[in-house]
Structure formats: C-alpha cells, structure tokens
C-alpha cells in the first residue's frame, strides 16, 4: 500500500490557511516525510498522523518553506520521548544547521538521528519494501526530487490448487518467490499454475521545486503518480522561468511526456486565493491532474 | 499606550491549539516582538497584526520554543518586500544561526537586519518613547527577561489658563517640558498653574523562562504588569525546580514581592488541557493574576 498525505501545499509565505510544503508518503507500516516547512508538526497534530511512525525524512532543498519546520519536529520528537532512530536525508549543510541548533539548546536527545547528506543522484534507501531514489531538479539552488518504488510483492498462492497437489508447507515461500514445484514423482508444476500475479508494485515521485525540465522524465517515466509543483498559472510562464518554478501546463506536459498515470499539483503561489483554475488548465494537457489538497490522503492505484 | 498581545502561551511542544511563546509589545505606533516560537508568523496572520509594524524582535534564549519561528518570519518579511530595518536582540549564536540559514537559501534580502548580541544585563533601547532593558533569569541555559518602560509624556497644557495669560505659542513646548512661565512684566507663573500631570508612564516586564529567583525583583519592582512563566501547577514544584521552571504560586509570589499591579501567566506545560486551576492557585497568593490567553491584547493600565 502506497499513499501520500498532503500537509502543506503552498509556496514560500503561508496564506489562505495553506501551509508550506510537506507530505507524508506511507508505505505499508512506515511513514516517510518529504519536506518539512514551518508548522508541519502542527499539521501532523491537525491531521492525526502518528509522529512515531515517521522513520525517515527527506528534505529536497534548503529554501525555508521546505525545511524550517524540521528542527521543531525533531525537538518535539525528543521532548515526547521518542526512542527509535530517525534518518534524515538532505543537501549540505542541513546536518550542520540542525546540529548547531540542538547544541545551543543543550538538550539531551531521547533518540539517535542519522544524517545522510545528499550530494548526487542515486539510491537513498533500498530494503525489502521499497527503493527510494533522489534526482536533481532544476531550481535556483541545489534541489532534489525523490522517487518511491515498492518492491514486487510475493506471488499469491492459489490455495485450492496448492492443496489439491499436496505441495508441502515448507515449499510455500518458494512458490511465492516464483519457483516451479517438482512433485515426488518428478513432474514439474509450473509456478503459474499454483500462483497468481501479486498486485503490481506502485510508484510515486515527488518532483520538488523545479522549472520545466525534461531531464526529469527518465526518473519518473511510467510512474503511477507524481507530484509536480505548479507555483503559477500558465499566464505567468515567464515569471516561473525566471524564478525556477513551473506552471500548470508545464507540470501537465511533464506528466504527459513521462507517461504517468496521475498528477498531483502543489506549491501554489500566495497570489492565488482560489485554485480551481489550476485543475482546469492542467487538465487541458493531462486530464488526470489534481490539486494536492491539505489533509487529503491520495492512495496510489 | 502600552499593551501586550499574546501570540503563544504554551511551553515546548504545541498542544491543545496552544502555541509556543511569542508576544507583541505595542508602544504607541511601534510593535516589538518578544520571542518567536514556531508558527508565530501564522499567529500574526490569525490575529491580524501588521507585520510591517514590527521594528524590533527580542529573543530571550535559544530553546526552540522561543525562537524557531524567527527565521521563517524574517524570510517572509523579505518575500513580502519589507523595506524598513529590523533590529534583532538575542544571545549568541542567534546571529550565526539566522545568517547561515539566509546564506544557504541564497536569497536577496529586501531589508537590513541589525543583530544585537546580548551578553550582559543592561539597556537595549533608549529613545524618546521608551527604555528597554534586559536582565538575567535563572534558566538551564543563558536566558534574559526584558523590561519595557515608557518615557514620561509631556505635561498637559491647561489651554484655558494658558490663553487667559496670553502665553505665546512659542513657549508651549517649554510648558510641556515643565518650565515656569515669566510674563513680560516679570511675574513668574508656576508651571503647575498652566499644566496638569500627564498620564503616568507605564511599565511591563517579560520574565522569560526561569525558576523561582528573587534576584528578578529589582528589575521589575513596582511595574504595572509583568509576565512570569507558570509552566506547572504548584504540586509539581520539585519538577519545576529541576527543569528551571516555575509554578503558579512561585510566579504569584514574585509578583507580590515585587509589588507589581498585575501578573500574566503563561508557558503552560502540555500536560494541562484546561487552565482554570492556574488562576485559582496564583490568586491565592496574588489576586490580580491572569492567564495570558492567545489572541488577547492586555493593555497596561
């Protein structure tokens, strides 16, 4: 199960009760946080997301609306007595900034933080559940997007057939892993007879802050869902270019060219009180475009 | 006119829709901010306080719940195109922390920030309107309280008498400053005949985070209003001592011994859902004790 909950969908300055960027990527029992603008810990309370489930935090870049809430979140984790390790990924000098603030407060931390400084594109996490990679986006300062890909689930046993052919329990794990079964009289039963395909592994990419750049395409090609910023409507295409941001149609074009299934849009400029037009414009290019709304959990299908 | 608006009255961890410490001290046309916990800029929006009026920010100490919102506020000031200078007062290494975060974001700031590192007790501001002083409190790390004292206003002209005695306009300023008037025939008219006392200058002190410590008394003696933290109810007196915080009765005792007129209480522990008992306990010692409630403006009388 892969799902994304939006905690903040606004750019730079808080406005219209919209908050700076933060998302929770839920992968089975784990919660990953992506970016952590100021007030994110309060958004977690508002939306009743269990802080203790957050095992890893990924920070795309060091503009304040993407990380000013991190130190407060870490501080609260400790005050609340967190025990489990926390892994934090982000560009330098994030580690220096956080450690300096912890040091001057002279706090005893209740848990260990492992910093992973991002210096290049590549794999950040690769475990039995998923692979998390980072990729460069085209922003004013060093900035990374993050892709989350589930590992294939084990094949599903067709239990009636497995029992009819008297496959021993000890071989079930091998069946799930795709192996054929050889009966005691040496008949080969192809795996496909005994198992069915598991649900396809899901994929999601967070494309961070970026101007329109097709170099993102290989990193997100064919993904089930992507988030791509749409700071501006398309009439501000020149301003977007100048500020290293994107418009609705640009995000939708990336989604369409990458052949993804669904586009979430966010990082809305505080110029905009209402957001309906973002969907209208994007859908002219890529019909399955949606506003990333705060508090909503988008399941990746 | 001296008044205090509470933006946050909770300690450490946000809870029960209470926010970390921040206050606005309004002095005629100027707004001073005292402490700036995470989310303070959103509280400013919630309570419709004009950010452009904030000329000086005083940070008591570098525990996160007292300053994590500062960088976001400064960042937003710049994004919103602030032009006027900002003065920031606080212990080292506040300046280093803020400047490092501004540097990594590679932002062009729209205004100048003047940092004033606090290293000792003394006068921070002394102008025609007021005197702001800082004084040490007894906390786990270096921590300062701030006192705000209005300058005496000019004496009030008794305009009927002034005109009857044909005092020239050019002498009005001297009358307001307390001088006697000498008529053309050398009669001395005592100032008290021509003017009345102005309203008494008001005073307010923010006593920051502190354990019970009577060394605060000389800094706040006779003040019109003080804020003193009451992290805990009195049954947790030992815990308060251990954590360098105060209880209701301790704050009220300070108020009573200092001979102040009114006590505001805040920095409530997230243990407490309701706060009524804070007033009940404190008023047993010092009757004019009040909860510092978020969004409320307390005029100093």
UniProtKB/TrEMBL annotation, chains A, B:
It is an enzyme of class 3 (hydrolase). The active site is at 65 (proton acceptor). One of its GO terms (molecular function) is 3'-tRNA processing endoribonuclease activity. The keyword ATP-binding does not apply. Binds 2 Zn(2+) ions. InterPro entries: RibonucZ/Hydroxyglut_hydro (IPR036866), RNase_Z/BN (IPR013471). It catalyses: Endonucleolytic cleavage of RNA, removing extra 3' nucleotides from tRNA precursor, generating 3' termini of tRNAs. A 3'-hydroxy group is left at the tRNA terminus and a 5'-phosphoryl group is left at the trailer molecule. Its EC number is 3.1.26.11. It holds the Pfam family Anti-Pycsar_Apyc1. Zn(2+) 2 binds at residues 65-66, 209, 267. Keywords: Endonuclease, Hydrolase, Metal-binding, Nuclease, tRNA processing, Zinc. Its cofactor is Zn(2+). Zn(2+) 1 binds at residues 61, 63, 139, 209. Homodimer. Belongs to the RNase Z family. HAMAP family: RNase_Z_BN. This is Ribonuclease Z. It comes from Terrimonas rubra.
């Amino acid at each position: 199960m892969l799902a994304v909950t939006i905690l903040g969908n606004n750019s730079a300055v808080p406005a219209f009760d919209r908050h700076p960027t933060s998302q929770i990527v839920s992968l089975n029992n784990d919660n990953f946080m992506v970016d952590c603008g100021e007030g994110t810990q309060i958004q977690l309370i508002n939306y009743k997301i269990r802080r203790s489930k957050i095992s890893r935090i990924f920070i795309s870049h060091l503009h304040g609306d993407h990380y000013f809430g991190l130190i407060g979140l870490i501080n609260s984790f400790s005050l609340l007595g967190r025990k489990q390790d926390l892994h934090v990924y982000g560009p330098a000098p994030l580690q220096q900034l956080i450690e300096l603030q912890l040091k001057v407060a002279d706090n005893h931390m209740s848990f260990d933080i492992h910093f992973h400084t991002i210096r290049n594109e590549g794999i950040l996490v690769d475990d039995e559940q998923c692979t998390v990679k980072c990729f460069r986006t085209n922003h004013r300062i060093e900035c990374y997007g993050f892709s989350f890909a589930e590992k294939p689930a084990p094949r599903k046993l067709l239990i009636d057939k497995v029992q009819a052919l008297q496959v021993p329990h000890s071989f079930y794990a091998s069946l799930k892993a795709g192996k054929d079964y050889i009966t005691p009289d040496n008949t080969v039963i192809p795996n496909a007879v005994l198992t069915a395909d598991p649900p396809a592994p899901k994929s999601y990419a967070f494309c961070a802050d970026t101007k329109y750049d097709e170099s993102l395409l290989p990193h997100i090609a064919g993904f089930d869902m992507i988030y791509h910023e749409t700071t501006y409507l398309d009439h501000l295409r020149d301003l977007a270019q100048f500020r290293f941001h994107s418009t609705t149609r640009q995000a939708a074009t990336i989604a369409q060219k990458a052949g993804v299934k669904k586009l979430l849009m966010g990082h809305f400029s505080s110029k905009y009180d209402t957001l309906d037009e973002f969907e209208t414009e994007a859908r002219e290019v890529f019909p399955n475009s949606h506003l990333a709304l705060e508090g909503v959990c988008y399941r990746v299908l």
